[in-house]
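User: I'll paste a sequence; please echo it back and then give the predicted structure.

Assistant: Echoing your sequence first, then the prediction.
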Amino acid sequence: MSSISARHDHNAMGGEMVMADGVPALFYMQRIFWVFVGTSIAVATLANVINKILCRQRISVRQSPSAAKPTSLFFKSHATLSAIIREYSNYSIPVSINRKHFYLSPVGLWTILVGYLVLIVVCVFYGFNPKDFAQFEDIGYRAGFIAVCQLPLIILLSGKRNIIGFFTGAGYERLSWLHRWTARALLFTVLIHMGYFLTVWGKYDYIMTKMRTDALTQRGVAAGGVLLWLVLSSCAPIRGLSYEVFVVQHIISWIGFFVALTFHIPAENKTWLWLPIAFWGFDRLARAAYMMYGNLSVFHKKSSGFLACKASFEPLDETHTRITISNPPITWRAGQHLFLTDHFLAPLCSHPFTITTLPEDGKLEFVVRAKKGATKKFYKYAETVSPLLPLAESAVPKPRPVLIDGPYSRIRPLRQFESLVFIVGSTGATFTVPLMRDIVQQWVGKTNTSWLPFSMPAGAVTRHVRFVWVVKKTASVRWFSSQLNDVIREVEALKNEGHDIAIEISVYVTCDNAMTSPRPSITGEESRFIGQATSGREDQLDEKNTAYTLSQEPTSDCDCGRLVTDQDAITTICNCIPKRERDSNSSTSSLEKSDRLVHPRINLLTGRPDVSNIIRTTAELALGEMAVVVCGPPGLVQCTRNAAVAISDDRAVHKGTGAQGIYVHAETFGYA
């Protein structure tokens, strides 16, 4: 028995310890693991650099009608390879079980995860015979070494000021799902580590003795238990109960895990602990520096008081609040978000909100859906100080001091694409309206260019923009009516000056939850529609969207549920609106009011958009690569993803037909 106890003594074992002939040493396999991880990051970085070069090249020749069309052999090959990767990675496999229909997460995500697990398994078992009992403890040691060397990657993927994201061009919110899954892969590796030792001890009925007498084993079990809690508590159903509580306990549990691990692993492996601590500390210091600069008035001459940001709250309807910060002390780009904190209204709460304005507007503005927690408190406060009824000028409430953290998020510059299609569900307009306005600002020439030496030049390759917004009620049009009207007027003025540009905006009024609601279930009729669109998938990308359900409930026979095209006009209020609303004067005139709020050139339709037809029509007219940007609930996002894949495949973009590629950027409701 003494020999068994002695073998599980990490302090007596070196990473380069001699193992069986032909079996690599422990440190060597750690280096192999990071060779593959580092190579993957390098490939993603190279792809990001090529995309930036391509963007700069296109904008430099933006006056050419074929600016977004590859001409050289290198970029033609790049376009073909991109089309193949997009069609493969964006597609989501439909599954049916007991009349329930599911879409799995996009294939590209699963491929990355499976590849990562294969790498771990190979690094753990390479050179060993997993069936040879004599090698079980050696496999256990190897698994422990491979487990601990994963820690720097997990921490690197968790940072807001993300180093990997900086090089690869991916925002932290897009890397957060990989952070969670690498943590689960770490748990998988730890289970291999524990399992092989327990198997050996179990053969000699030595498990409980080891647990009672060996401090090293006790610390290992403690670390494994905390890691198990970290993984389980990070699952969406538990995390969603209270995100603020989750963040606090997650940090405390992470500290406990590292403390237990410090006393468990050998001294020569401690480097794998100091590295992630250093990365975590750098992220916190960088965030603290940005927050101090963005929030303290001492750094901004035009600000007064202690905090530089003052926010006003205004209720838009029964569930949405508009938050406005005038004269913000920071700058940002369209499509970015920041974290907003008001410790007096919602103590210790910090929530991410998409910025709905551009820097040229001179204000930060957010449209926030009131759910629970901080967002509900913001809405109740807005109701109190600024009710829906008009206030006298003297009664306008004084803005409140708030804290901001950001901005965050990255998206490829959309002005490098010849045509753009925006598919938007409900509050997804907070993300897409600024992106569309930014293109128009590039056309008008109002966008400020950055002083940085590697910044992109001004101007846009884009010549055609198609914007489709799906809402549950026409009153929602008021959220962005002024911005949409300004877009139409500015584009018409440019066209009168001879500019070859076009923009189409359509608003669809529907009661289709798959198009407008964060809830994933949709009805049988909607299921048939999505099947049609996909024949031929961020926050954030979360495991809660790994499979979404299409329930087989019958639909009401109202107009808002039908599939329509832009040739259909909106003329009546849909039948599914409650009778009390249809009978009220304000509701019966809602369409007329909306008509007066929006420009006549903005189409108001009742029903569901034919996403596949919209994308296909734009693709057939595009003179170069086009982009599809979708933001909304999982049902709408997945429908759009698969439609783009089917159209790209039908047009044989990757087969040398001359058809141009389709880039898809997807944002889903929710937050990682």
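The chain has three domains: 2-62+107-213+265-287, 310-408, 414-445+459-668. DSSP finds 23 helices and 18 strands in the chain.
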